[in-house]
């Protein structure tokens, strides 16, 4: 997977201290991860839902980004300045080739490329199980075992004095089968073996940056949604400034994080507890 050169957007990237997360193994040996991002400021859930439906199809002209001046590139490259390579919607798509439940997405990226290179690559085709205004869910099934991994994102607008001040963004991942035969246990053991401390450090860093930069580029692209063939981005469009105390931000709902981790730990089938193809747990 050739890696495109880094995009120097000059954004202040959120640190991992701005998220709260935890990991448990349930009674069936499934790995369950819950992650609470800090409040996404200047963003709405409508913007995020629009992005998930469209992002793999979008191209954007980078007007003044060093090394990319005037170049039209995948909008997927804005979603992370160094780790993203390519994304493509395939299968039974919605209107104008948009994502919907039942379609698939092909993803090529790598976790924390600047530190680990291609040590933690992603080159997968995943099924989209949920694509609605309140969230996104995708995963992988294998014959005889069913779901093997499921990533579920939930988001909800947060109001103050009747106005939206940001988005609560909640992420859950389940990996492994709940089945208990010899083959299933061997599969789970292999999966768990790949989830090293280095892997989690790379994934959490990648995900913190990926979600955090919604504040930097998403309002700009969403404002141009009526002309998707002429999307553009320049550095003076950044709505978030350097001085907004990134280091002081924390995961939005610690109680929800702990509640979900406990639920997963007590579960015998984490996919049933996750309810990844149902409405958002945020209500």
Short description:
Helices cover 25% and strands 30% of the residues.
Identify the notable features of this structure and list them briefly.
Alpha-D-Glucose-1,6-Bisphosphate, Chain A, domain 4; 283 residues; single chain; 25% helix
Helix and strand topology:
Layout (H helix, E strand, L loop, with lengths): L19 E6 L5 E6 L8 H10 L4 E4 L8 E4 L9 E8 L11 E8 L2 H4 L4 E12 L2 E8 L3 E15 L2 E13 L6 H13 L2 H16 L1 H9 L9 E2 L20 H13 L3 H5 L9
Parallel strand pairs: 3-11
Antiparallel strand pairs: 1-2, 2-10, 3-4, 5-6, 6-7, 7-8, 8-9, 9-10
Helix pairs in contact: 1-5
What features would you describe in this structure?
There is one protein chain. With 283 residues, the protein is α+β, with helices and mostly antiparallel strands. It has one domain (16-274): Alpha-D-Glucose-1,6-Bisphosphate, Chain A, domain 4 (2-Layer Sandwich), CATH 3.30.530. The protein has seven helices and eleven strands. The protein has helices spanning 45-54, 113-116, 182-194, 197-212, 214-222, 254-266, 270-274, and strands spanning 20-25, 31-36, 59-62, 71-74, 84-91, 103-110, 121-132, 135-142, 146-160, 163-175, 232-233. The protein has an eight-stranded antiparallel sheet. A hairpin with a 5-residue loop joins β1 (20-25) and β2 (31-36). α1 (45-54) packs across α5 (214-222). It is globular, with a radius of gyration of 19 Å. The termini are far apart. The mean pLDDT is 93.
